[in-house]
Amino acid sequence: MQHTTESAIDVSTLLTVRDAERVARTMLPKLALDYYRSGADAEITRRANRSAFRKWAIAYHVLVDVSRIDARVRVLGNELASPILVAPMAYQCLAHPEGERATARAAGKSETLYVTSTMATTSLEDVAREYDAASSGAGQRWFQLYVHRDRGLTRSLVERAEANGYGALMLTVDTPVLGRRLRDVRNAFKLPTGMFAANFLPAGDISKAGVDAQAAYTSGRHEPAFSWRDLAWLRSLTRMPLVLKGVVRGDDALRAVDAGASGVIVSNHGGRQLDGAVANLDALPGVVEAVASRGPSDFTVLMDGGIRWGTDVLKALALGAKAIFVGRPILWGLTVGGEAGAARVLEILRNELATAMALAGCPDVATITRDMVVRS
Ligand code: FNR
Ligand code: LAC
Question: Tens of pLDDT along 120-139?
């Protein structure tokens, strides 16, 4: 596969996430670009994730002292420098030879919470090492879990994550089966030779790469029978806090509370799973309300999907998200400039958020209240 690894691009010339996407599109091989950009089926939900943000406008305050902007948030009891977090995304070596190593370092250096995917092309041990070295101990990293039919395999992933100091287990619950991304079907998507789902490699020995590491994407190894009842089993495996990614309903959020989860991520997987699913921002208020109906608690509502501007972050926080994750923008940055490109995308979004907070008269996240947005 052709990679454009040496880019002449000075990442400081990227001013927006859109700039990063535009350049990345010219650099990525078709197989990778199609995998990254696609939603499921007619991509109604992928598009709706964006258009949902346009339905809200910011009703800003004036004459507030905004000489100091403080975007710090507390998530699962940990203080984070910013509410902008990095979503788990599979197969990052398709974007750049350094793949997850580069995004983990970019996140680590800026003490941004980073979530590594079960389907990463770098092992969770290597991601942990890279992140920790870059962040010198501060920051947070979580492990995203797909439950496999092979319960022993699932258990060993959880145990490895705990042994390697991951701060939380993010269980993705919107993927009992994989959504159908038409471009991937047409491209007969599979990992190029020499690239592996590294968490399934036996002790890093590539020569023994089994079918799991090579064909993980298409193999249908996820456990479609896994249900609320099985969460107790998962809880019993680990002391890591559990967050459920892919919840879009208030009643499901309450089941997550009852199951002992510490939070949910309102997410439809970037529109890659159920096409026609509710846009994340539209689902968010219902989830927030349901959780609030139980009274004050530490249960955390996060969200992802379609965030491309600092103002999007402000809108999501106003509608009740504690923090948000970005997905594809990180992949575009990684493509354009490896670690520097991913870091640049994080910096763009953080700066945009700071500007949005200043212009909205919100010096800290506590002041980004529900009344800051109105339907437009
Ligand atoms: C994802 N996402 C994802 N989620 C997950 O739980 N495990 C995974 O391995 C992946 N892999 C993955 C690959 C690619 C290429 C994309 C684009 C997305 C979903 C991801 O965590 C997140 O929910 C969305 O990407 C958020 O939407 P935006 O920011 O991409 O619009
Ligand atoms: C995806 C899976 C791997 O969205 O989560 O491609």
Answer: 999 999 999 999 999 988 88
Torsion of CA 154, 157, 160, 162, to 10 degrees: -80
Query: From CA 195, how far away is CA 206, in angstroms rounded?
Result: 9
Closest ligand (CA of 17): 1
What is the value of pTM for the model shown?
0.96
Given a cut of 90, is residue 213 above it in pLDDT? no
Task: Indicate if ligand 1 lies below 6 Å from the C-beta of 89.
Answer: yes
Tell me the per-residue pLDDT of 305-316, one tens digit each, with 9 for 90 and over: 999 999 999 999
Q: Looking up tokens 């495996």, which residue turns up?
A: 237
Beta-carbon count within 10 A of 169 CB: 25
Query: Is-contact 301 294, C-beta < 8 A?
Result: no
Among all bound ligands, the one having the nearest atom to the CA of 335 is: 1
Q: Are strands 56-58 and 373-375 parallel, antiparallel or unpaired?
A: antiparallel
Max Cα distance, the chain (Å): 64
3 is catalytic: no
